[in-house]
């Protein structure tokens, strides 16, 4: 379980595919002594398991195996060496819940339709898959590339969020442009509410 509060931006060292699986290797600032094999780390919002690690002068190099389902429903398969990726370690009991509850199970991919920069901030408009649009509501939460964000406006299958200067500074969002695709996880409460109401 995560909160959508990005705790580091890693750099992709390797993204190699072999059949239905891929190996993702990322350099990060996490202290290697605090990471164990089998630990979970969210990469651009997708929960992955650490399968190998090595200390570096500053931080650690972490390796993850990415399965076929994850490759099919996320943007991870398009990562290349040098790409930067939002990272988050899992929530611990007693930690502050600063964002919202995020599972790290990406529901689909949203497209950036437009970006408007003003006063150090950025307003993004996204288009999400039609099947997921019913879970996106004004003042509700979404996780985009692992970042907890509040929905400011909704129109059909498009919605808007606002990135404040801090978010732009500590995540990959300063680099994002119209036409790019990002990982989307809808709010869990919205998903369960739809299920309980009998929605398909």
Summarize this structure as a short list of keywords or feature phrases.
200 residues; 2 domains; Elongation Factor Tu (Ef-tu), domain 3; 12% helix; 6-stranded antiparallel barrel; mainly beta; globular; 6-stranded antiparallel beta barrel
How would you sum up this structure, described in words?
The chain is mostly beta strands and about 200 residues long. The protein folds into 2 domains: about 10-90, Elongation Factor Tu (Ef-tu), domain 3 (Beta Barrel); about 110-195, Elongation Factor Tu (Ef-tu), domain 3, CATH 2.40.30.20. Helix content is about 10%, strand content about 45%. It contains 4 helices and 12 strands, in the order E-E-E-E-E-H-E-E-E-H-E-E-E-H-E-H. The chain has helices at about 70-75, 130-135, 165-170, 190-195; strands at about 10-20, 20-30, 40-45, 45-55, 60-65, 85-90, 110-120, 120-125, 140-145, 145-155, 160-165, 180-185. A hairpin with a 2-residue loop joins strand 3 and strand 4. It is globular and about 45 Å long. The two termini are about 25 Å apart. The model has no long low-confidence stretch (mean pLDDT about 90).
């Amino acid at each position: 379980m995560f909160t959508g509060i990005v705790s580091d931006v890693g750099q992709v060292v390797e993204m190699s595919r072999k059949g239905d699986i891929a190996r993702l290797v990322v350099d990060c600032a996490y202290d290697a002594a605090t990471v164990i094999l089998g630990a979970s780390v969210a990469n651009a919002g997708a929960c992955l398991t650490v399968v190998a690690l090595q200390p570096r002068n500053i931080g650690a190099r972490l390796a993850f195996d990415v399965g076929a389902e994850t490759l099919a429903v996320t943007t991870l398969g398009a990562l290349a060496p040098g790409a930067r990726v939002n990272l988050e370690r899992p929530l611990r009991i007693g930690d502050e819940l600063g964002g919202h509850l995020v599972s790290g199970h990406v529901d689909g991919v949203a497209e950036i339709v437009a970006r408007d920069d003003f006063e150090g901030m950025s307003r993004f408009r996204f288009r999400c898959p039609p099947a997921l649009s019913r879970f996106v509501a004004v003042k509700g939460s979404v996780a985009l590339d692992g970042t907890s964000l509040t929905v400011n406006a909704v129109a059909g299958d498009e919605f808007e969020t606002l990135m404040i200067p801090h978010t732009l500074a500590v995540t990959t969002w300063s680099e994002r442009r119209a036409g790019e695709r990002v990982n989307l996880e809808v709010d869990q409460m919205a998903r369960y509410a739809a299920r309980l109401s009998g929605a398909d």
